[in-house]
Amino acid sequence: MFFMLSGFIISHVYAGRLAVFSWRGYAVFLWHRFARLYPVHAVMLLVLVAAIAGMQALGVAPNHPENWRPEHLPWQFLMLHAWGPVEAASWNTPSWSISAEFLAYLAFPMVLVALRSVKAAGGAASVAGALLIGLAAMFTSFGWGLSSSWIGGPAILRVLVEFTVGCLLYRIHRATPSPSLAWDWCGFGAALALVLAALMRASDFLLLALIALFVLAAASPAGWLKHALEARALVFVGRVSYSLYMIHYLFVLAFNRALIALAPVAIGPISYVAMLIAFSAIVIAGAAFMFRFVEQPAR
Questions:
Q1: 176 with 153: CB under 8 angstroms?
Q2: Where are the alpha helices (DSSP H) in the chain?
Q3: Which of 3, 93, 166, 299 could disulfide-link 8, Cβ–Cβ 3.0 to 4.6 Å?
Q4: Residue 185 half-sphere exposure, CB side, CA atoms within 13 Å?
């Protein structure tokens, strides 16, 4: 969803500005995107470096020592780690996606050129479908798993295809009628189908198609789905979602260590749910702090 939604939003904001290519416009675009991604990424890396150094000074071994290799740090700080210079995701593991995402930003003007002749909704839908089918065929033929493709060729192929599909979804959105209640029900149906397909462990590529449909539907609702998506709590979490995404891994590590420490203690389902709620609240509070004091001022 992240890569498709990104292609949709970047097209919405920048496609008109970059319709006629200029190096100055391209440089401004990349600077804006760098300012969006890099500060939180760099701060979280520094926090993790300090945390691992502190643990080592105290004689506490971190979980999965292979995830904290110093030789990976230069590639991490350059935000190039998903492009293939390292053999595995490490440090702030979720940051592989923003490394791959910046590659999609670099390619965005070329995507616009490639899609220049695709204007009608039907044509855009056909190309998007063909790209997803081609992605599925490539991953199947090479034996790659979509949910573990974080480094090198698989990650690059995945982000470029899904980002381009997002760009095509925006073209479908622009070419279709104005918001209507039909999109509300389409979005609800896609979300329900997505949950059911995930519970049934359906193919990841079916999930991609359902995510694409949901992103498209969520852009044009006119009734109850529109009001639900405009709820203040959801808008707030959406606003801090990048910071939340980038900090959550540190909290997950801490939460897992707490569970290990509590292993001898019987944890019932009610206690576990209470812990998950508390964990979620802490992560959202941490994301709000990161957004307020790092992400916003740095941008």
A1: no
A2: 2-14, 23-57, 73-77, 96-114, 121-142, 152-175, 181-199, 204-218, 224-229, 232-239, 241-261, 269-290, 296-298
A3: 166
A4: 3
DSSP symbol at 177:
P
Phi, psi of 293 (to 5 degrees): -105, -10
Q: Which amino acid is at 240?
A: V
Residue 86 — left, alpha, or beta (φ > 0 → left; ψ -120 to 50 → alpha)?
A: beta
DSSP category for residue 179? P
Q: Which residue has the tokens 């992103």?
A: 215
What is the per-residue pLDDT across 134-162, written as a single tens digit (0 to 9) for each? 999 999 888 888 877 888 888 999 999 99
* HSE-CB of 293 using CA atoms within 13 angstroms: 8
pLDDT tens for 201-222 read 988 888 999 999 999 998 888 8
